Amino acid sequence: MNNHNTLRPIVRLIAGVAVGVVAIGAISAAVLHAQVTRQEMAGVRNLTLVAPTVACAGATDASAIPTIAQKGYKAVINLRLANEPGAAIDEARTAATQAGIRYIHLPFSLAKPDEAVVDRFIAAVSDEANLPVFIHCASANRVAGLWLIKRVVVDGWDQAKAESEALAIGLSNPAMRDFARAQIAKRKG
Fold it and tell me: What is the C-alpha to C-alpha distance for residues 114 and 79, in angstroms, rounded to an integer?
């Protein structure tokens, strides 16, 4: 019986530590999800706010750009290819010019990913003159993948945390995920 009495405080301590670890994990997950906020905006698909100065989205109609400007965004970064159905690059550029905000077209093809686009993306989202910035593609998959690279390489985030955020933004294609992981490994190495 003496051994049981000696072990009780140790068992209680281990149980307390386990409960604490679970609580910290739950709080961390809640904080991450609190940073990623879904919003609705007419003409914008899959809109997510990931930071006070960054919005990520899928397909964005040119008709939504005046609202984007009214919300205080200084730049729109479009990752869509000009030949994608509904991309309307010229119309979006005109709408941005009329609204008085920057329009940055960085066409990114998942079929032929270009590292130079990653470099230009990181430069554009890191440029204070573009903040707050509104970033979009067709579904938010490419946005999420490039944002993942930026979070780890520039912001110094843990890769697992950055991948969790990217999934919440819209990362859905394994090829985009794998490209982002390869870029992170190359740029951190």
Answer: 12
pLDDT digits (tens, 9 = 90+) for 142-186: 999 999 999 999 999 999 999 999 999 999 999 999 999 999 999
For Cα atoms 88, 90, 95, give the angle at the middle one, nearest 5 degrees.
Answer: 95
Find out whether 36 and 168 touch, Cβ atoms under 8 Å.
Answer: yes
The pairing of beta strand 102-105 with beta strand 75-78: parallel
Distant-in-sequence, close-in-space partners of 38: CB < 8 Å, separation ≥ 6? 47, 48
Is residue 54 within a helix (H) or strand (E), and if so which, with residue range?
Answer: strand 54-57
Give the amino acid at 146: L
CA distance 167 to 36: 10
Q: What does the buried/exposed string (b/e) look like for 77-104 if buried means 16 or more CB atoms within 10 Å of the residue's CB?
A: bbbbbeeeeebbbeebbebbeebebbbb
